[in-house]
Amino acid sequence: PDVIQKEAENRRMAQERKFVSEPLVSHIYTADPSAHVWDDKLYIYPSHDIETDIPMDDTGAHFAMRDYHILSMDKLGGEVIDNGVALSLDDVPWAGRQMWAPDAARKGDKYYLYFPSKDKQDIFRIGVAVSDSPTGPFEPLEKPIPGSYSIDPTVFEDNGEHYLYFGGIWGGQLQRWQTGEYVAEDSYPADDKPALAPMVAKLSDDMLSFAEQPKKVLLQYEDGSPIPAGDNDKRFFEAAWLHKYGDTYYFSYSTGDTHNIAYATGDSPYGPFTYRGILLEPVLGWTNHHSIAEFDGQWYLFYHDTQLSGGQTHLRNVKMMPLAHNDDGSIQTLSAFAD
Ligand code: FUB
């Protein structure tokens, strides 16, 4: 599979390349960092990567994570605190395996952790867990969010409303939901047809369910035509993130098998979003997954690579580096490598 070929290349690159940033923590493996600033403090909600004997494949079976640890930082350059286990697979009644990339939201005095996991039938669903503290522990609901599926939830707040974006192809199973129902076989649109779209739904007032049917997020070229499935350098794969700069909404995402973080801009949280370029070039590893947040007057990109494990794709470490918006609204392309 694609992942095995890339793994050999990663291990070679790990010896040869230099990095612009160092891992934020090195006592555990962390990935998929979703960053938020609440009450002037930085919180990072990452996946917690672990060693496994499960062989690598293109569905990501080797990403066998079992819990979440939340990282926090009082000030830039300050100590990065690991706040311990915030939620464990064993405590989620509906979940079977693979706790993948999470995100969190705050409303009133409560914090909500959104997380994907395969249910007991091996179908990815999105769960929610609630806490009085941004660092947990989080109490999971008995069941996943009704009508939820696939992976990589991210929550974006705009004018007091919260929107949940989700979806990821290949191991993330988005391709199995094209009819609106789960179909156990993978099927993909033809190369010249619109690519599989990430999904968005407004959350209910209590943050625990969808307030509407999830809708497709349209990613388009500048001429308004949809990005087709065959444009692997630009089409959506996984790792959605939303941020707002000025009046513009930025939808950024991983292109998966072409390993970039791309971004697209629009005038509404629902899109459509017009492709603008690459904001992070491929990192060391197969996956590329990020978030963007402003902390103490500076925008940052949070991302991961596999520096700590010497290039092992399922053993990643989170990092951060400054990010800049240009006057024309574009974002300067970043590289994780210093050479
Ligand atoms: O961490 C497991 C999966 O790898 C995430 O859900 C994807 O976005 C990719 O980073």
List keywords for this structure.
38% strand; mainly beta; 5-stranded antiparallel sheet; 339 residues; binds beta-L-arabinofuranose
List the helices and strands and how they pair.
Elements: H1 2-16, E1 29-38, E2 41-49, E3 67-73, E4 81-88, E5 95-97, E6 103-107, E7 110-119, E8 124-131, E9 139-140, E10 154-158, E11 161-166, E12 199-202, E13 215-216, E14 219-220, E15 238-245, E16 248-254, E17 261-266, E18 273-280, E19 291-295, E20 298-305, E21 317-322
Parallel strand pairs: 14-18
Antiparallel strand pairs: 1-2, 2-3, 3-4, 5-7, 6-7, 7-8, 8-9, 10-11, 11-12, 12-13, 15-16, 16-17, 17-18, 19-20, 20-21
The protein binds beta-L-arabinofuranose.
Give the C-alpha Rg. Answer: 18 Å
Ions, cofactors and other ligands present here are:
beta-L-arabinofuranose
Helix and strand run: HEEEEEEEEEEEEEEEEEEEEE
Q: Could you describe the largest sheet, including whether it forms a barrel?
A: 5 strands, antiparallel
As residue ranges, the low-confidence spans are none
Anisotropy-based shape: globular
The computed structural class is mainly beta
Q: Output the number of helix runs.
A: 1
- Annotation, overall tally of beta strands: 21
How far apart the termini lie comes to: 29 Å
Helix content: under 10%
Q: What would the average pLDDT be, to the nearest integer? A: 97
Assess the beta-strand content as a share of residues: 35-45%
GO molecular function: hydrolase activity, hydrolyzing O-glycosyl compounds
Keywords: Carbohydrate metabolism, Glycosidase, Hydrolase, Polysaccharide degradation, Signal, Xylan degradation
Organism: Microbulbifer rhizosphaerae
InterPro entries: Glyco_hydro_43, Glyco_hydro_beta-prop_sf, Glycosyl_Hydrlase_43_Enz
